[in-house]
Specification:
With 477 residues, this protein is an alpha/beta fold. The longest helix is centred in the first third of the chain and has 23 residues. β5 and β6 form a beta hairpin. It has a six-stranded parallel beta sheet with strand order 1-10-7-4-2-3, sandwiched between helices. Strands 8-5-6-9 form a four-stranded mixed beta sheet. 53% of the residues lie in helices and 10% in strands. It has a domain of 56 residues. It contains 23 helices and ten strands. This is Iron-sulfur cluster-binding protein. Pfam families: Fer4_8 (PF13183), LUD_dom (PF02589), LutB_C (PF11870). GO terms for molecular function: 4 iron, 4 sulfur cluster binding; metal ion binding.
């Protein structure tokens, strides 16, 4: 299986393939139900959760409205603290900047903190093409990398793998990438974690270059923040001589006080913890403490275009907690790979088509990868109305001609509603012929009626019933 998403089919076909994998579905069902139940208990501990959620929404919206101001403030603060800021308009530019920075050190290996921004731009593949090996150090990302796989979840990239599969991957692949797995490795979680720890330790100790993303950037001080649960991030952020952070421009927050809100809502929504075990913060460089060279690559890659959409821009509030994936009935059954993007699930269905556009078959299909049940909106810690954006993006796809039948049907319906006499005649005809109506739709409509009952047509239209009722009232008076 390829490590990239290039050439992935549209969501319906990819989901159909995933539905036939019983092991995948069992893994997903167990993991998502476990995570979401724990999250619900953690959130219930806070009496002011609704207020925190609204505060996060307001902070993000305010920041996005003044993004230019806060990004310039961030650049000034990072530079003053000894860091260097680079601006990347797209993936190609970001990859070129990072590659040049690594080459300037003379190193051919880097260690990485889990970073969706670097996955988005396919940095690892670009570095490999330039003779540079990037080692993932997050446990789940390590599993994905060793298995020549793709991430399928925002928080738990290897959620589609069970313990026995992970054991086999470690046994077969660890020796190729570095220290081999211990002899007699079983699928006990403690043994698997220890095998990963031993494998990664040598990489941490010899690495001269670290690459990370960031969960947040504080504009007032130029501070970057990474939250994680394993400690691998702390190692990558403190041991190397050079640290390169690739961060989406939407990750900035104005002040430390704003950060306080998200350090409460993110861990509870993602890992169901009151706080993350490791919260690493750094501001520029300091003599004799941590990396001596710090580079921040601010990534646009479609975010400015997304910001211009008044409805769609709310996707940029996302703090990558993955709560929406864990409650989504579509994700639970189809898995993350079906979305053809590093951003799977409900948030991916609205973020990816905006960052990449809706011209490709897979991106045009993503706004339809939802039942619009609304569970994702209910759990989102920054109140992104994902169903609203999905409907908005579906309209965009239709306007671009992506669904000709739907467009024709909507045009016909609009014409009928504009001509009341035609609508009334059609309703009467439907009522009089209702015994002849099929139980399933023909042609392309068959897929819809295969899983839904067609509504029964009444024996007379509402208009006729209403007129008769009004007539009887008049006679009675």
């Amino acid at each position: 299986m390829s490590g990239t998403y290039l050439g992935m089919p549209a969501f319906p076909e990819a989901a159909r393939q995933a539905l036939g994998d019983d092991t995948l579905r069992a893994n997903l069902r167990h993991a998502t139900h476990t995570i979401r139940d724990k999250r619900a208990r953690a959130v219930a501990e806070l009496d002011d959760w609704a207020e925190l959620r609204e505060a996060g929404k307001q902070i993000k919206d305010h920041t996005l409205q003044h993004l230019d101001t806060y990004l310039l403030q961030l650049e000034e603060a990072v530079t003053a603290a000894g860091g260097t800021v680079h601006w990347a308009a797209d993936a190609a530019q970001a990859n070129r900047i990072v590659t040049d920075l690594v080459k300037a050190t003379g190193e051919t290996e880097v260690v990485k903190v889990k970073s969706m921004a670097t996955q988005e731009i396919e940095l690892n593949e670009h570095l490999a093409a330039e003779g540079i090996t990037a080692y993932e150090t997050d446990l789940a990302e390590l599993i994905v990398q060793l298995g020549d796989d793709r991430p399928s979840h925002i928080l738990v990239p290897a959620i589609h793998r069970n313990r026995s599969e992970i054991r086999d991957i470690f046994r077969d692949q660890m020796g190729i990438w570095g220290r081999p797995a211990p002899e007699g490795l079983t699928d006990e979680p403690a043994e698997l974690a220890e095998a990963a720890r031993l494998h990664l330790r040598e990489k941490f100790l010899r690495a001269k270059v670290g690459i990370s993303g960031a969960n947040f950037m504080v504009a007032e001080t130029g501070t970057l923040v990474v939250v994680e649960s394993e400690g691998n991030g702390r190692m990558c952020l403190t041991l190397p001589d050079t640290l390169i952070s690739v961060v989406g421009i939407e990750k900035v927050v104005p002040t430390w006080r704003d950060l306080e809100v998200f350090l409460q809502t993110l861990p509870r929504s993602s890992t169901a913890e009151r706080m993350n075990p490791y919260t690493s913060m750094w501001t520029g460089t300091a003599d004799g403490d941590g990396p001596q060279n710090f580079h921040l690559v601010l990534l646009d890659n479609g975010r400015t275009d997304t910001l211009a959409d008044e409805v769609g821009r709310q996707a940029l509030r996302c703090i990558r907690c993955s709560a929406c994936l864990n409650v989504c009935p579509v994700y639970e059954r189809a898995g993350g790979h079906a979305y053809g993007s590093v951003y799977p699930g409900p948030i991916g269905a609205i973020l990816t088509p905006q960052l990449r556009g809706t011209t490709s078959e897979v991106d045009a299909s993503l706004p339809y990868a939802s039942s619009l049940c609304g569970a994702c909106y209910e759990v989102c810690p920054v109140a992104i109305d994902i169903p609203e954006v999905l409907v908005h993006l579906r309209e965009r796809v239709v306007d671009q001609g992506g669904h000709q039948l739907e467009r024709a049907a909507m045009s016909a319906a609009a014409w009928a509603f504009d001509h009341p006499a035609v609508l009334a005649a059609g309703q009467r005809m439907a009522s009089r012929t209702r015994r002849l109506h099929p139980s399933r739709l023909p042609g392309p409509g068959r897929a819809w009626s295969d899983s839904r009952d067609l509504p029964q047509v009444p024996d007379r239209p509402f208009r006729d019933w209403w007129q008769r009722q009004q007539g009887e009232k008049g006679d009675a008076q």
